[in-house]
Design goal:
The chain is mostly helical. Helices cover about 85% and strands about 0% of the residues. The chain has one domain (about 5-50).
Amino acid sequence: MDTTALVFYALICGGLSLAGPRLGAPFLRFGIGAAVGIAAAAILPLVRSAFY
């Protein structure tokens, strides 16, 4: 298992879960979660290249 991806997504998901209830209605939270997931997937290659 790739530990870089595991740690990166754990931090992203953990941070999002802390803000979850304050983000509003379920559909809004779903949209924000999807946007954060897309952004995290786009940023991961940059983070990985910074460490390797």
